[in-house]
Amino acid sequence: MPDVLIAGIGNIFFGDDGFGVEVARRLGAAPPPGARVADFGIRALHLAYELLAAPDLCIVVDCTSRGEAPGTLYVIEPDPADAAPAITDGHGLSLPLVFATVRQLGGHPPATLVVGCEPATIAPGIGLSAHVAGAIPAAIAIVHRLVRSREVPP
């Protein structure tokens, strides 16, 4: 069975940006077989070090604004070759920065998928909007499906 890292990311102090953290919290109680679940919050360096362990797949769960209705879910395959931004935001986590850090540390970014949720608000404040909170069960189902799709049949 492949090694899968499920990484919840986001900042719980900015409304719906805490989506990934909450999904990780719930998945941690009953992780999919073959998967490790961790809440990385905004700790990009911590995630980069975890990726040095070379999981077969990393599933990142995060709020992702793409202009759709709040609570809309996406599955995105980021390009690990994307360049890291020159300036980082101390209140967020940038996957290009994580991938660049993994390469600087001598590793190779693994296959990565993002399960994203369209936020209603990322203004300062604690707690998810009703639309985003309501999308959590479907996001968990998507994560389980993605992990199962990576299983090797007997």
Strands, helices and their partners?
Elements: E1 4-9, H1 19-29, E2 35-41, H2 44-51, E3 57-63, E4 73-76, H3 95-104, E5 111-117, H4 130-149
Parallel strand pairs: 1-2, 1-3, 3-5
Antiparallel strand pairs: 4-5
Question: How would you briefly describe this protein structure?
Answer:
This protein is 32% helix and 20% strand. It has 154 residues and is an alpha/beta fold. The longest helix has 20 residues, at 130-149.
* Helix run count: 4
| Helix-strand category | alpha/beta
The CATH H-level homologous superfamily: HybD-like
How many whole angstroms does the radius of gyration measure? Answer: 15 Å
Q: According to CATH, what is the topology?
A: Rossmann fold
N-to-C order of helices and strands? EHEHEEHEH
Q: What ranges have pLDDT less than 50 throughout 5 or more consecutive residues?
A: none
CATH architecture identity:
3-Layer(aba) Sandwich
Please list the strands of the largest sheet in the order they lie side by side. Answer: 2-1-3-5-4
What would you note in describing this structure?
With 154 residues, the protein is of the alpha/beta class. The chain has a single domain, classed as Rossmann fold, CATH 3.40.50. The chain contains four helices and five strands. The protein has helices at residues 19-29, 44-51, 95-104, 130-149, and strands spanning 4-9, 35-41, 57-63, 73-76, 111-117. The longest helix has 20 residues, at 130-149. The protein starts with a strand and ends in a 5-residue tail after the last helix.
